[in-house]
Design a protein that fits this description.
This protein is of the alpha+beta class. It has a domain at 214-407 and 481-492: FAD-linked oxidases, C-terminal domain (Vanillyl-alcohol Oxidase, Chain A, domain 3). Helices cover 36% and strands 21% of the residues. The chain has helices spanning 3-11, 19-24, 34-39, 53-65, 118-126, 144-150, 157-160, 223-236, 248-261, 265-270, 305-313, 318-321, 340-351, 382-385, 388-398, 414-417, 420-433, 457-475, 481-492, and strands spanning 15-16, 46-48, 69-73, 89-93, 100-104, 109-113, 130-132, 167-173, 179-183, 199-209, 214-220, 240-246, 279-285, 301-302, 327-336, 356-362, 366-375, 402-403. The strands form 3 sheets. It has an 8-stranded antiparallel β-sheet with strand order 14-11-13-12-16-17-15-18, sandwiched between helices. It is globular and about 75 Å long. Mean pLDDT is 84; it is low at 263-273 and 478-488.
Length: 493
């Protein structure tokens, strides 16, 4: 019997190996190019669907005993290949583990299973006059465990920090099937590691009291002027928890979505109509911002309360942008706050085409920028579009930045994201509990090809990026250009 038959015989209705499911689970937010599929096995053997922690532990133990590689997956809202196969593996979909176990008002914590989404937990907490401290722009679908495994950032991070700053304790099923409880001292065993050390079953995270949000919005044709405003806020106001910046191309795409979702022409005319030539800054504070911080500048416009309110209510745009596809190739980088303008100018010079992006500023003088490249996974141009994120990361590194997450695409770049102490700890853990690297193989640490040991997936990606850029110049192919430009033209009509 092959591995698929063994899994089907053992788990029956909790296992699916049909063609459609395997195709869906072969990629995350970003599609998988044919070039990648040539080097790696991108389709899973099948999908395991645990409904309880006991189910999950049995599945992991079975895979470990039968030498079957397995990959933990939440909602698949990332775009780095952290939850996709590279060899014959089974996906373990944890999205059905959705029990909100408890909350503690005295210590301001909540304990949940790994498949709980931010939206589910927020709705639950708000009934108790509580809320989350920080959460991603993909909160309606993203799971809490998945966000932490990616090293998440987003709304609320200007005051409360990254996903790492939210965790109090966690339970983890090791690759050998052992269930263990860990404290915050062992957070580096799961944070930003794409699930290579086991599967998270339960998390206790920090929460806060639900307070009135003071939301402010600014528009300006000058990115430099808005960044000066950001510097004022981050240096002088510690009650601000969210600083969210969007470029004009992102604004155009967002308006296209908003107008498309309105049912009548009257509703469409009433939708937010911010200038597509201006940058947009959204600032959220737990206290009212002092008048001197709102001082007027001839190049900055303070938005009306009605527009600001609607903007805040519609802040989860990232996932909806995918509807403009057919396909989207995202890329996220983290850069020093004081290098933001320099980095954006490098990107504009390199691509010289419209690229939509949005950014969140993070406690500690950093910013995360999410770029959106449009492509069509049905066409050959996808093989070139997938190189664009690699170029963005290279530009970020020039100003002291880095990739947002490792996953598969940036495995081999672990020294740029993780400290030497963390890397040593994780390597020793893997040697002890997962010697055969069955748990999410080829992620974080670069893989050496069996028949060509001097070549790793990092080498393949670098060579592919270099040769792809040359070929793009020769053939004048830009995988994102046609789709992105067509949306902008449609927006102007």
């Amino acid at each position: 019997m092959n591995k698929t038959d063994i899994l089907e015989q053992r788990f029956k209705k909790s296992f699916s190996s049909n063609t459609v499911d395997r195709a869906i689970y072969s990629s995350d937010l970003a599609p998988t190019s044919k070039i990648v599929s040539f080097f790696f096995i991108s389709k899973p053997l099948g999908i395991l669907l645990p409904r309880t922690i006991t189910d999950l532990q049995e599945m992991i133990t079975f895979c470990y005993q039968n030498k079957i590689s397995f990959i933990p997956r939440g909602s698949g809202t990332s775009g780095y290949g952290g939850a996709t196969p590279t060899r014959k593996s089974v996906i373990i979909d944890c999205s059905r583990l959705v029990d909100i176990i408890s909350f503690d008002k005295e210590n301001m914590t909540a304990t949940v299973e790994s498949g709980v989404t931010f939206e589910q937990l927020t709705r639950f907490l708000e009934k108790e006059e509580l809320t989350l401290r920080s959460y991603p722009s993909s909160a309606p679908a993203a799971t809490i465990a998945g966000w932490i495994a990616q090293g998440g950032m987003g709304f609320g991070t200007a005051k409360y920090g990254t996903a790492k700053d939210q965790v109090v304790s966690f339970n983890l099923i090791r690759p050998d099937g052992t269930l263990e409880n860990y404290s915050i001292d062992d957070l580096d065993l799961i944070y930003a590691l794409s699930g290579i050390t086991g599967i998270i079953t339960q998390l206790t995270i920090k929460i806060r009291s639900l307070t009135n949000e003071n939301v402010y919005g600014y528009n300006s044709p000058s990115l430099e002027k808005l960044l000066e405003k950001v510097d004022i806020f981050t240096n002088n106001n510690h009650s601000i928890h969210t600083i969210h910046l969007q470029n004009p191309d992102f604004r155009s795409l967002k308006q296209l979505i908003d107008k498309g979702e309105n049912k009548t022409s009257e509703e469409a005319s009433d939708s937010i109509d911010l200038s597509e030539h201006e940058y947009h800054l959204l600032v959220v504070s737990e206290e009212e911002i002092k008048e001197n911080d709102l001082s007027k500048d001839s190049k900055i416009k303070l938005l009306s309360p009605d527009i600001i309110k609607e903007e805040w209510e519609k802040r989860f745009t990232s996932l909806r942008i995918k509807r403009l596809g057919p396909s989207i190739m995202p890329c996220e980088v983290v850069i020093p706050q004081d290098k933001f303008h320099t980095f954006i100018k490098l990107v504009q010079k390199k691509f010289n085409e419209p690229i939509a992006w949005e950014s969140h500023f993070v406690k500690g003088s950093e910013a995360i920028i999410l770029f959106y490249f449009f492509t069509d996974e049905r066409s050959f141009s996808l093989n070139f579009a997938f190189l664009n994120p690699l170029v963005i990361v290279q530009l970020a590194e020039k100003v002291g930045g880095r990739a947002y997450a490792l996953g598969y695409w940036f495995s081999g770049y672990e020294k740029k994201l993780l400290s030497p102490a963390t890397l040593n700890k994780v390597r020793h853990y893997k040697e002890k509990h997962d010697e055969s690297s069955l748990c999410n193989p080829d992620k974080v640490f670069s893989r050496r090809f069996k028949w060509f040991p001097i070549i790793s997936n990092k080498t393949v990606i670098k060579l592919g990026s270099f040769s792809g850029q040359i070929l793009m110049k020769i053939l004048r192919i830009k995988g994102y250009k046609k789709a992105n430009t067509s949306y902008l033209k449609k927006m102007k009509k």
